[in-house]
Amino acid sequence: MILLRLLRILWVITRFRLDTLLPLERLPWPLRTLFRLSPLRLVPISERSRGERLRLALESLGPIFIKFGQVLSTRRDLLPEDVADELKRLQDQVPPFPGQQAREVVETELGLPVTEAFARFDTEPLASASIAQVHGARLHGGEEVVVKIIRPGIERVMRQDMALLYRFARLLSFVPEARRLRPVEVVRDYETTLFDELDLHKEAANTSQLKRNFKDSPLLYVPAIHWELTRQRVMVQERIYGVPVADIDALEAQGTDLRKLAERGVEIFFTQVFRDNFFHADMHPGNIFVSRKHPHDPQYIAIDCGIVGSLTREDQDYLARNLLAFFHQDYYEVAALHIESGWVGEHTRANEFAAAIRTVCEPILEKPLKDISFGQVLLGLFQTARRFDMEVQPQLVLLQKTLLNIEGLGRQLYPELDLWQTAKPYLERWMEERAGVKGLWASLKRHAPELSHQLPELPTLAHQALAQAELEKRQRRRQGEALGGIQYQLERQGRRHRRLRLGLLLVALAMAWQPLAEWADGQPWPALVATAIGLVLLAWY
Predict the structure, then answer these.
(1) Is there a single domain that holds both residue 251 and residue 109?
(2) Does residue 182 form part of some domain?
(3) What whole-number distance in Å separates Cα of residue 241 and Cα of residue 292?
(4) What is the rounded (10 degree) CA torsion for 402, 408, 69, 48?
(5) Distance CA 232, CA 235 (A)
């Protein structure tokens, strides 16, 4: 099956002539020659544009490839305009599956006819994405809702693609240069997040959590879930009416404050990551809308919470300290934190690493997004990572992907946005609350139940600790005495061995003296003296 899937991928690449998208002149000459001599060049190129060919190829290959296209579509600064416009359609305009099939999935999952569950169910989908599509409906109580339905048979295709990814990752693991990227771990984390999207119960739970985190917030609104009509492959949610965040013309037409909208996007990201430790990790423009209410005080609307992320408290702290050091241009602190956390080789010199980071980052600080070439920045960071054996942190891959989405979104909404000055005050405030009096008080409150349970046992625990310390002290003293005795015995044994060797040497000399005595006028006394001393030494041994 894997071989058939690989052949299918190669056929799609050939059919849509994706080789023409590669900048051949920038490839090493062996690869350039290989492509120019490839039989691919015998296949005619269709009249479709390059962007359309790429989009159709990704659509035909399935959800994993469509997800890749969605991520690319958010980075218009890294893509030609025509390619970015086509990939944008992957966000919510993937070819749908038939409406009748959608009704059958709903009835199977709910265990009742669609007419009993809904007063109206629209056969024509509102939007269609890589893993699911959405239909409009109305409940019997009159509330307008949307029904999200997982594509039938999609799990089989996804498992085939993941098997291929694992094979490629294992092959990459044999390449020393690629090993630090930890490809197998990255693929494993990606598999977990991707397959979580197939369970709409999890997405509904994520949505409810995000809604609680931003309850009554002017920053973000999250539509409510109808749990009684939600199953593993079907989810019913409150219908929202907003402007797609990528529709800049519509936002400007209603008078939206785009600068405030962009700044609030940054604030939402940092709030989710650091305050809540629960962030929406699929924030491409197809999942983000802007409320039509209060355009001068704009509010985001988030949908599709199938992929969410969180960090350990240690990763949160390291990340915040790294970012703050970066904002303060304290590159030595950035280097020291990377070494302390084990993200770079253990023999890395902090001053050398700091100098390398300064070279990459200094040109982009305190500049608006429109003046930053992230292609050059990424290239510089990859070169620095290679030089210092920096490993990819799989637990941060989702966060990095989300940050790329946010940065790409900010570039579209308000290119003058100063990402650094927008984020810096929030991080400083968070660190002060975390490490200051408020943080200490919050930590005490969080551990209060545990402390109250252990408080009556403190005298006993203290006594046990002191007794254990005294026992360990006696054991160390006995071990020291034992080691001293062993050392004395070893030294004594060494002296005995030296006496034995000397005694044997003298006896051997005495035995060899007879022929020498004849040559030395027959004097026997040296041999007798040597023999006597040798016998004494042997007796002493």
Answers:
(1) yes
(2) no
(3) 8
(4) 170
(5) 8
Q: Please answer whether residues 421 and 327 qualify as being in contact, where contact means their C-beta atoms are separated by less than 8 angstroms.
A: no
Least Cα distance to 110 among 4, 235, 5 occurs for: 235
Task: List active site positions.
Answer: 282
Strand order across the beta sheet in which 220-221 lies: 220-221, 300-302, 288-291, 242-244
Among 385, 414, 446, identify where a domain stops. Answer: 446
Query: Do 438 and 473 fall within a single domain?
Result: no
Q: For 193-226, what is each residue's pLDDT tens digit?
A: 778 888 999 999 999 999 999 999 999 999 999 9
What is the separation of C-alpha 74 from the centre of its chain, rounded to a whole number of angstroms?
19
Structural domain contains residue 161: no
Q: What is the pLDDT of residue 520?
A: 46
The pair phi, psi for residue 536, each rounded to 5°, is -60, -45
- Residue ending a domain, among 427, 446, 465, is 446
409 and 302 together in one domain: no
Q: Using CB atoms within 10 A of its CB, is residue 300 exposed (0-12), middle (13-18) or buried (19+)?
A: buried
**What CATH number should be reported for the domain holding residue 232?**
3.30.200.20
Domain span at 210? 99-152+197-309
Residues 84 and 148 in one domain: no
- Residue 166 within a domain: no
The distance of Cα 403 from the centroid of its chain, to the nearest Å, equals: 11
Please indicate, yes or no, whether residues 10 and 87 belong to a single structural domain of this protein. Answer: yes
Query: Which pTM value belongs to this model?
Result: 0.68
Per-residue confidence (pLDDT) for residue 136, from 0 to 100: 96
Residues in CB range of 306: below 8 A, 6 or more apart: 131, 196, 197, 200, 202, 203, 206, 282
Distance CA 55, CA 84 (A): 10
Residue type, 369: L
Specify the number of domains making up the chain.
Answer: 4
Q: Which of 367, 480, 469, 345 is nearest to 415 (CA)?
A: 367
pLDDT digits (tens, 9 = 90+) for 137-160: 999 999 999 999 999 988 888 888
Query: Which tokens in the block code for residue 527?
Result: 């041999």
Helix axes 419-435, 258-270, angle to 10 degrees: 30
pLDDT score at 281: 84
Q: How many CA atoms lie within 13 A of 275 on its CB side?
A: 14
In the block, residue with structure tokens 């006394």 = 525
> Quick check: 117 and 135 in contact, CB under 8 A?
no
